[in-house]
Amino acid sequence: MTYRITGLDPTPYRPLFALDVEALRQRGVVRMVADAQPGFPCRVTLDDCAVGGAVLLVNHVSHDAGPYRASHAIFVSEGADAAEFRDAVPPALDRRVLSLRAFDRDGMMSAAMLVQAGEADDAIRTLLDDPAVDHVDAHNAVRGCFAARIERD
Q1: Which of 67, 76, 130, 141 shows its CA 20 to 30 Å from the CA of 50?
Q2: Could you count the other beta carbons within 10 Å of the beta carbon of residue 16?
Q3: Does the pLDDT at position 146 exceed 90?
């Protein structure tokens, strides 16, 4: 089973970087500077932001169907372009403990797995081997935030 992991589209976030602190606050967004690596996993590049890089902490709805609707804070780095990984786990995911949640076409969770850092590839393939699984959402297990959507390739 082959799979693809794509970073979020940066287009909706780009205009936010031009806003001042008050305008961001009104939108529930916080501007930060990455002060550790790893520590600020960008959901667009799927890697940790470089130390000193500008990031925004924003709320993101990762699953908008039925009772499993989910949203959480995510980081987006300034100037980021969407990354795409085929049959490979991106750096920001590979170095973290992940909760992998498999969903069917109706948005219902059909399976879930907890994987240690560096062990996601086999678990992703196992979940996607089930033909009823439409996609897998990866979340950072420690903080619970959305990491990436995983789809069959």
Answers
A1: 141
A2: 16
A3: yes
Q: Count how many Cα atoms sit within 13 Å of the Cα of residue 25 in the half-sphere of its side chain.
A: 3
Burial of 96 (0-12, 13-18, 19+ CB in 10 A): buried
96 pLDDT higher than 80? yes
Q: How do the domains of the chain map onto residue ranges? A: 3-152
Model confidence at 65, pLDDT cuts 50, 70, 90, reads confident
Q: How far apart are CA 118 and CA 137, in angstroms?
A: 17
Nearest 5°: CA angle at 84, between 78 and 11?
40
Q: Which of 92, 97, 124 is nearest to 111 (CA)?
A: 124
Rg of the chain, C-alpha, whole Å: 15
